[in-house]
Amino acid sequence: MKLDKKIITLLVEEDLKINYNYNYSFMKELYKLMSSIDSKRTKDIHENGFKIDNKIYKLFNFQIYFEGANYNNENIEIKKNSLIKLNISGVTSVLNLIFKGILKNGGIEIGGHKFKINNVEDDKKIKFNKIMLYKVRSPIVESIYNSEMKKAEFLNPYDERYYNALGKNLLRKYKIIYGKEYTGDLFFEIEDFIKIKKKFIKDINKNGFVIGFTDFEIYIEAEPEMQRIAYMTGLGQNNSIGMGNISYICGRRE
After folding, report:
1. Which of 45, 153, 162, 195 is most buried as measured by Cβ atoms within 10 A of its Cβ?
2. Which fold does the domain 131-252 belong to in CATH?
């Protein structure tokens, strides 16, 4: 499978406010756009995704940057003529459906507001090395089912199980995308624990929520093919609602 990343620039045509918990509704918008092009394929992606070991992966990820916005206690306030940068990445066939849907529908909706495309750019070229340093741009979510509590237990970066879960997640994605088992090193190390921020993302399928951790830098030691998967599909769970998005800082061979 091919992976790709595009940067879409959207123009804000009036002053507006967007609720912080836009992630789930934006994922629904992406499915709506895809469905306008191929409803059968979109239904299959939504319901079945890419399956492995009784797990389902959608293999796309996004992050939205509101340039020059004012972040108050309740909303994101955006001024007229400012720009929004939408970074979207994942399996090329899925991205192609999204872009066709945006073109057909004359734009894309975020938080109840529709925006027209101002520009589309390719992501900068990155040479993936054995050791890479990334900035975590959106909360990395990992959870396990707690049989005693009978609900999901969200893991945190101070728990060894958090890193084990991150690794298993990437190993499954690797097998889906490349059609083979990964046999190289896979190691995670957080550079700056002091910067870690805990985030609650609400309005997930009505009253649901997820808990994740963001704003820190993380080293990943792995083969370049695995680095590419982490960068293009995101770390952890819930990537299709924009969780686990990372940006490149630097890399080195050893």
Report:
1. 45
2. Alpha-Beta Plaits (3.30.70)
